Amino acid sequence: MTDADSALVPLATTVDEAHRRASVAVLPVGSFEQHGPCLPLATDTLIACAIAREIADGYPVRRLPPVTISCSHEHAAWPGTVSISSATLAAMVRDIAASVGTGLVVVNGHGGNYVLGNVVQEGQRMALFPGPRDWRAACAAAGMVTPPDSDMHAGEIETSILLDSHPEVVGDDYAATNHVADDRRHLLTLGLSPYSDSGVVGRPSLASAAKGRAFLASLAESFAGYLAVVSPSE
User: Fold this and answer.
1) How far does CA 113 lie from the centroid of its chain?
2) How many angstroms separate the CA atoms of 90 and 121, rounded?
3) What CATH code would you report for 3-230?
4) Fewest 10 Å CB contacts: which of 129, 144, 166, 190?
Protein backbone atom coordinates (compact mmCIF):
# COMPACT_ATOMS: atom_id res chain seq x y z
CA MET A 1 0.00 0.00 0.00
CA THR A 2 1.44 3.39 -1.02
CA ASP A 3 1.28 6.56 1.07
CA ALA A 4 -1.46 7.82 -1.23
CA ASP A 5 -3.48 4.61 -0.81
CA SER A 6 -3.15 4.49 2.99
CA ALA A 7 -4.22 8.12 3.28
CA LEU A 8 -7.68 7.14 2.05
CA VAL A 9 -8.38 4.66 4.86
CA PRO A 10 -8.72 5.73 8.50
CA LEU A 11 -6.93 3.16 10.65
CA ALA A 12 -8.91 3.69 13.87
CA THR A 13 -10.36 0.63 15.59
CA THR A 14 -13.83 0.27 17.05
CA VAL A 15 -12.22 0.75 20.49
CA ASP A 16 -10.71 4.03 19.29
CA GLU A 17 -14.11 5.22 18.13
CA ALA A 18 -15.77 4.16 21.38
CA HIS A 19 -13.28 6.28 23.31
CA ARG A 20 -13.56 9.19 20.88
CA ARG A 21 -17.36 9.38 21.18
CA ALA A 22 -17.43 11.90 18.35
CA SER A 23 -20.70 13.71 17.78
CA VAL A 24 -19.79 14.59 14.18
CA ALA A 25 -18.45 12.42 11.34
CA VAL A 26 -16.54 13.70 8.31
CA LEU A 27 -17.15 12.04 4.93
CA PRO A 28 -14.75 12.82 2.05
CA VAL A 29 -16.34 12.61 -1.39
CA GLY A 30 -13.95 12.54 -4.32
CA SER A 31 -14.15 11.34 -7.90
CA PHE A 32 -12.36 9.14 -10.43
CA GLU A 33 -11.83 11.40 -13.42
CA GLN A 34 -9.15 12.79 -15.69
CA HIS A 35 -6.95 15.52 -14.26
CA GLY A 36 -4.75 16.21 -17.23
CA PRO A 37 -1.46 14.46 -18.01
CA CYS A 38 0.27 15.06 -14.66
CA LEU A 39 -2.29 14.47 -11.91
CA PRO A 40 -3.93 11.12 -11.11
CA LEU A 41 -7.52 10.09 -11.74
CA ALA A 42 -7.98 9.98 -7.95
CA THR A 43 -6.98 13.64 -7.50
CA ASP A 44 -10.32 14.80 -6.06
CA THR A 45 -10.42 11.87 -3.66
CA LEU A 46 -6.88 12.56 -2.46
CA ILE A 47 -7.75 16.23 -1.96
CA ALA A 48 -11.00 15.51 -0.09
CA CYS A 49 -9.10 13.08 2.14
CA ALA A 50 -6.31 15.61 2.75
CA ILE A 51 -8.91 18.14 3.88
CA ALA A 52 -10.61 15.53 6.08
CA ARG A 53 -7.30 14.55 7.69
CA GLU A 54 -6.49 18.20 8.35
CA ILE A 55 -9.87 18.56 10.04
CA ALA A 56 -9.45 15.37 12.08
CA ASP A 57 -6.03 16.54 13.29
CA GLY A 58 -7.61 19.64 14.81
CA TYR A 59 -11.12 18.63 15.88
CA PRO A 60 -12.76 15.69 17.72
CA VAL A 61 -14.49 14.21 14.67
CA ARG A 62 -14.86 10.72 13.26
CA ARG A 63 -13.13 10.48 9.88
CA LEU A 64 -14.81 8.11 7.44
CA PRO A 65 -13.31 6.46 4.35
CA PRO A 66 -14.08 8.28 1.10
CA VAL A 67 -16.64 7.90 -1.62
CA THR A 68 -14.23 7.51 -4.53
CA ILE A 69 -16.50 7.61 -7.62
CA SER A 70 -19.06 10.35 -8.15
CA CYS A 71 -20.61 12.55 -10.87
CA SER A 72 -17.87 13.14 -13.45
CA HIS A 73 -19.86 13.01 -16.66
CA GLU A 74 -18.33 16.26 -17.97
CA HIS A 75 -14.97 14.43 -18.15
CA ALA A 76 -16.24 11.34 -20.00
CA ALA A 77 -14.27 12.16 -23.17
CA TRP A 78 -11.00 11.14 -21.48
CA PRO A 79 -9.92 7.54 -20.83
CA GLY A 80 -10.11 6.40 -17.22
CA THR A 81 -13.00 8.55 -16.07
CA VAL A 82 -15.77 6.63 -14.28
CA SER A 83 -19.07 8.10 -13.06
CA ILE A 84 -22.17 7.20 -11.12
CA SER A 85 -25.52 8.97 -11.39
CA SER A 86 -26.45 11.85 -9.13
CA ALA A 87 -29.28 9.70 -7.75
CA THR A 88 -26.82 6.98 -6.77
CA LEU A 89 -24.46 9.45 -5.11
CA ALA A 90 -27.34 11.05 -3.22
CA ALA A 91 -28.58 7.66 -2.03
CA MET A 92 -25.10 6.64 -0.86
CA VAL A 93 -24.60 9.79 1.18
CA ARG A 94 -28.09 9.60 2.68
CA ASP A 95 -27.51 5.98 3.68
CA ILE A 96 -24.16 6.83 5.25
CA ALA A 97 -25.71 9.75 7.14
CA ALA A 98 -28.42 7.48 8.51
CA SER A 99 -25.91 4.81 9.49
CA VAL A 100 -23.39 6.96 11.38
CA GLY A 101 -26.11 8.25 13.69
CA THR A 102 -24.30 11.54 14.34
CA GLY A 103 -23.91 14.88 12.65
CA LEU A 104 -22.25 14.56 9.24
CA VAL A 105 -20.06 16.98 7.31
CA VAL A 106 -19.59 16.04 3.67
CA VAL A 107 -16.17 17.18 2.44
CA ASN A 108 -16.65 17.52 -1.30
CA GLY A 109 -13.57 17.39 -3.53
CA HIS A 110 -15.34 17.53 -6.92
CA GLY A 111 -17.19 20.57 -8.21
CA GLY A 112 -19.53 18.49 -10.37
CA ASN A 113 -21.25 16.90 -7.38
CA TYR A 114 -24.05 19.46 -7.41
CA VAL A 115 -26.54 17.04 -5.88
CA LEU A 116 -24.71 17.06 -2.55
CA GLY A 117 -26.14 20.50 -1.82
CA ASN A 118 -29.66 19.09 -2.06
CA VAL A 119 -28.79 16.07 0.08
CA VAL A 120 -27.48 18.29 2.86
CA GLN A 121 -30.39 20.70 2.49
CA GLU A 122 -32.86 17.87 3.00
CA GLY A 123 -30.98 16.15 5.83
CA GLN A 124 -30.65 16.76 9.54
CA ARG A 125 -27.42 17.85 11.21
CA MET A 126 -25.61 17.79 7.88
CA ALA A 127 -23.26 20.30 6.27
CA LEU A 128 -21.34 20.58 3.00
CA PHE A 129 -17.73 21.72 3.27
CA PRO A 130 -15.90 23.73 2.05
CA GLY A 131 -18.29 26.41 0.88
CA PRO A 132 -17.41 29.09 -1.68
CA ARG A 133 -16.42 31.62 1.00
CA ASP A 134 -14.15 29.07 2.68
CA TRP A 135 -12.55 28.29 -0.69
CA ARG A 136 -11.96 31.98 -1.46
CA ALA A 137 -10.53 32.61 2.01
CA ALA A 138 -8.16 29.67 1.59
CA CYS A 139 -7.05 31.00 -1.81
CA ALA A 140 -6.27 34.37 -0.24
CA ALA A 141 -4.46 32.83 2.75
CA ALA A 142 -2.34 30.67 0.44
CA GLY A 143 -1.50 33.47 -1.99
CA MET A 144 -3.09 31.72 -4.96
CA VAL A 145 -2.68 33.89 -8.05
CA THR A 146 -5.25 32.34 -10.38
CA PRO A 147 -8.88 33.31 -9.63
CA PRO A 148 -10.96 30.28 -8.55
CA ASP A 149 -13.23 30.54 -11.62
CA SER A 150 -10.19 30.32 -13.89
CA ASP A 151 -8.58 27.57 -11.83
CA MET A 152 -11.28 25.02 -12.56
CA HIS A 153 -9.38 21.75 -13.01
CA ALA A 154 -5.86 20.43 -12.32
CA GLY A 155 -4.60 23.98 -11.89
CA GLU A 156 -2.79 25.98 -9.24
CA ILE A 157 -5.00 24.97 -6.31
CA GLU A 158 -5.28 21.23 -6.88
CA THR A 159 -1.65 20.85 -7.84
CA SER A 160 -0.54 22.81 -4.77
CA ILE A 161 -2.58 20.62 -2.44
CA LEU A 162 -1.10 17.46 -3.94
CA LEU A 163 2.44 18.88 -3.86
CA ASP A 164 1.95 19.27 -0.11
CA SER A 165 -0.01 16.12 0.72
CA HIS A 166 1.07 13.61 -1.97
CA PRO A 167 4.02 14.97 -3.99
CA GLU A 168 4.82 11.49 -5.25
CA VAL A 169 1.70 11.45 -7.47
CA VAL A 170 2.40 14.74 -9.31
CA GLY A 171 4.01 14.33 -12.73
CA ASP A 172 7.31 16.11 -13.36
CA ASP A 173 5.96 18.16 -16.29
CA TYR A 174 3.00 19.73 -14.47
CA ALA A 175 4.40 23.26 -14.89
CA ALA A 176 4.12 22.94 -18.68
CA THR A 177 0.39 22.18 -18.75
CA ASN A 178 -1.16 25.63 -18.22
CA HIS A 179 -4.41 26.26 -20.05
CA VAL A 180 -6.95 29.04 -19.44
CA ALA A 181 -10.54 28.72 -20.67
CA ASP A 182 -12.70 31.18 -18.77
CA ASP A 183 -15.73 30.94 -21.07
CA ARG A 184 -17.18 27.50 -20.38
CA ARG A 185 -20.83 28.40 -20.61
CA HIS A 186 -21.92 25.11 -22.24
CA LEU A 187 -19.89 22.85 -19.94
CA LEU A 188 -22.91 20.97 -18.59
CA THR A 189 -24.17 20.24 -22.11
CA LEU A 190 -20.93 19.57 -23.98
CA GLY A 191 -18.55 18.48 -21.25
CA LEU A 192 -15.04 19.85 -20.78
CA SER A 193 -13.40 18.54 -23.95
CA PRO A 194 -14.43 21.49 -26.22
CA TYR A 195 -12.64 23.83 -23.81
CA SER A 196 -9.42 21.94 -23.14
CA ASP A 197 -7.51 19.39 -25.20
CA SER A 198 -5.43 18.30 -22.21
CA GLY A 199 -8.19 18.34 -19.60
CA VAL A 200 -6.44 21.08 -17.63
CA VAL A 201 -8.14 24.41 -16.95
CA GLY A 202 -5.89 26.57 -14.81
CA ARG A 203 -2.23 27.39 -14.22
CA PRO A 204 -0.47 24.55 -12.40
CA SER A 205 2.88 26.23 -13.13
CA LEU A 206 2.09 28.57 -10.21
CA ALA A 207 1.57 25.72 -7.74
CA SER A 208 3.76 25.04 -4.72
CA ALA A 209 3.70 22.81 -1.67
CA ALA A 210 3.79 25.89 0.57
CA LYS A 211 0.60 27.18 -1.03
CA GLY A 212 -1.02 23.79 -0.55
CA ARG A 213 -0.08 23.70 3.14
CA ALA A 214 -1.46 27.21 3.74
CA PHE A 215 -4.63 26.36 1.81
CA LEU A 216 -5.36 23.28 3.93
CA ALA A 217 -4.60 25.15 7.16
CA SER A 218 -7.07 27.88 6.21
CA LEU A 219 -9.80 25.33 5.48
CA ALA A 220 -9.20 23.67 8.84
CA GLU A 221 -9.70 27.03 10.53
CA SER A 222 -12.93 27.62 8.61
CA PHE A 223 -14.26 24.23 9.68
CA ALA A 224 -14.87 25.40 13.26
CA GLY A 225 -18.10 27.13 12.26
CA TYR A 226 -19.42 24.01 10.53
CA LEU A 227 -18.65 21.84 13.54
CA ALA A 228 -20.58 24.22 15.76
CA VAL A 229 -23.61 24.10 13.47
CA VAL A 230 -23.88 20.29 13.19
CA SER A 231 -22.88 19.43 16.76
CA PRO A 232 -25.75 18.63 19.14
CA SER A 233 -26.89 21.56 21.24
CA GLU A 234 -26.19 21.32 24.94
Assistant:
1) 10
2) 12
3) 3.40.50.10310
4) 190
